[in-house]
Design brief:
Blueprint lengths: L2 H18 L6 E5 L8 E6 L2 E8 L2 E6 L13 E3 L2 E3 L6 E3 L13 E7 L2 E11 L22 E7 L12 H11 L7 E7 L24 H5 L5 H11 L2 E7 L7 H9 L1 H10 L8 E8 L4 H15 L8 E5 L7 H9 L3 H32 L1
Parallel strand pairs: 10-11, 10-12, 12-13, 13-14
Antiparallel strand pairs: 1-9, 2-3, 3-4, 4-8, 5-6, 6-7, 8-9
Helix pairs in contact: 2-9
């Protein structure tokens, strides 16, 4: 135990004796039976909220507001002496309020006497302290004025990284992008979701709408969560995004849906705060499969990306499928290579570029009109 821990432990030991000398500052918060083992409760003293827990017979009183995103600790759960926030599971010592570093939500004196429970907020066991590690990641839209068109490709094909296979959707994406790579006025970037380490959405919006953060709370809590690369590319960098997916039972790939759920935090910014993160950006789609279902998958993807704020050029998707009675997967990849799929994907991207040029011309006209008004 280091010196700081020894100091806070001594404060806990001395709490009862010190408070008996200062009863005038203590507040009775209820009968002892109202604070059962393993349960949390939120109390209010002079307009300030505190979280009270009983663990292994001992009482603890800490600040109610989690330092991560303000979640209510009194509604959380306790395990091994740690209080886990009801929103995102950040945890704090139930008596000192201490996290795993120097940060603390604040710990306050609490004791039981004559079957009643008392709190003295003026007697601080460990003071509130916000550590720099809890500063939020900031990702906001950027405006580039260099005239460059930035095109992002997202491959949602899943495969074994050590034993890769041919993918018609990914092949089409990469070949179509090669038509723009190295050309003046264009920048391209391809993200393969299978190469990114990121967690599945844990549905914090279902607990409380304010618990859904931007960027995603999982990204903020996990420094190794690599979906931040996608967030930055979508919101800060690209003008156009082209999403490529195989067809899986008349739907997009499972990896696509894993990404889609983690993009809910973009749409929820609109729902909660009327904050639109995607403006004047265009989306397009490459959809391939052994059987039919291209239009059904395209409709679902277009609906979702429109809800994020993306718009679409004329004919915003291209597809390839063999049909129910022609599902010859041995020749599928070669047949797709020999088709017009890549050239049609290039045309789709060109149409998206034309729409971006229209947006930019409108913005330039608006800015010029405003200056001369």
């Amino acid at each position: 135990m280091n010196k700081k821990s020894q100091k806070y432990a001594k404060r806990l030991q001395d709490t009862r004796g010190l408070l008996r000398k200062s009863r005038n500052f203590s507040v009775c918060i209820g009968q002892a039976l109202e604070f059962p083992e393993g349960c949390g409760r939120t109390i209010i003293i002079e307009h300030k909220k505190y979280a009270v827990f009983r663990f292994q017979g001992k009482l603890g009183c800490i600040g109610n507001s989690c330092l991560h995103a303000g979640g209510p600790l009194g509604e959380g759960r306790i395990r091994d002496g740690r209080v886990y926030c009801a929103w995102h599971n950040w945890d704090w010592d139930f008596q000192t309020g201490r996290g795993y570093g120097d940060e603390s939500v604040g710990g306050y004196a609490i004791w039981e006497e004559n079957n009643k429970v008392y709190v003295d907020p003026a007697h601080v066991i460990m003071p509130l302290k916000v550590a720099p590690a809890h500063k939020k990641i900031t990702i906001t839209p950027k405006v580039f004025d260099d005239g460059t068109l930035r095109i992002l490709g997202i491959s949602t094909t899943m495969m074994n990284l050590e034993n890769p296979r041919a993918s018609t959707s990914e092949y089409t994406l990469e070949q179509a992008f090669s038509a723009f790579q190295g050309k003046q006025g264009f920048e391209t970037r391809v993200l393969k979701l299978r190469e990114l380490r990121f967690r599945t959405c844990e549905g914090y919006y279902s607990r409380d709408k304010a618990a859904c953060l931007w960027p995603c709370s999982l990204t903020q809590a996990d420094k190794d969560d690599q979906l931040i690369d996608l967030y930055r590319a979508l919101v800060e960098w690209c003008d156009i995004v082209i999403v490529a997916t195989p067809i899986r039972w008349n739907s997009a790939s499972s990896l696509y849906y894993k990404m889609q759920e983690r993009l809910n935090c973009i749409q929820n910014q609109i729902t909660l705060y009327d904050r639109v993160l995607i403006k004047n950006k265009v989306a397009g789609f490459i959809i391939t499969g052994g059987q039919d279902g291209v239009q059904a998958v395209a409709g679902s993807m277009m609906m979702f990306f429109s809800e994020l704020g993306f718009t679409f050029g004329q004919f915003p998707f291209v597809g390839w499928s063999r049909g129910w009675y022609n599902e010859n997967m041995k020749t599928n990849f070669g047949d797709a290579q020999n088709s017009d799929l890549v050239s049609e994907a290039v045309k789709m991207i060109q149409r998206a570029c034309e729409l971006i040029a229209t947006y930019r011309n409108q913005q330039h006209h608006y800015s010029s009109h405003k200056r001369h008004k």
